[in-house]
Amino acid sequence: MKMFDPNEEEIAERIGNSGEEERDLGERDNLSLGTYRICFYNLDNLFSRLVDLNVRVNSVDWFEYKEHLPEDTLEDLDKSRIVESLDRLLGSLDHVKLQATRSRLSLTVDSLRAEASVSYVDHMALLSCLLIIGSGLMQVYFVRKLFETPNVRGTTNKA
């Protein structure tokens, strides 16, 4: 994961699983106004980026903004909608994680199948060579047996 500020400068980078790590980009980082980019990289896929989020940071006085809103909109602005939206986002990210795991396992299965195929081909080639050598030895044995002296008789034809 990489984060870029509005000036396209990298402000954070993390490689590997995020786990439970949290990063508060509030007062400590003294964020400037503008559009921030968060890029999540999917290393298990042939494509490089998995998700590219753009986050806009605005400085708005909430109380002043709230005064200009209609009353029915104010009733809709409760935390349950935000939590529901975040739950849906979490479900989508879990689905992406599941798909990444599935593709990683599929890649592992494919590599194991390729290794098994290579060993199968090697064994079949060795068996074919042994069969050819064995059939040649049998031919030599039977041709010698055919021309042993008790089996060969002289002929009376004098030409």
Automatic annotation (TrEMBL):
Domain GOLD: start-end pairs: 34-148
UniProt keywords, alphabetically: Membrane, Transmembrane, Transmembrane helix
TM stretches of this protein: 124-143
Domain of life assignment: Eukaryota
Pfam family, one: EMP24_GP25L
Name of the protein in question: Transmembrane emp24 domain-containing protein 6-like
Protein's organism: Branchiostoma floridae
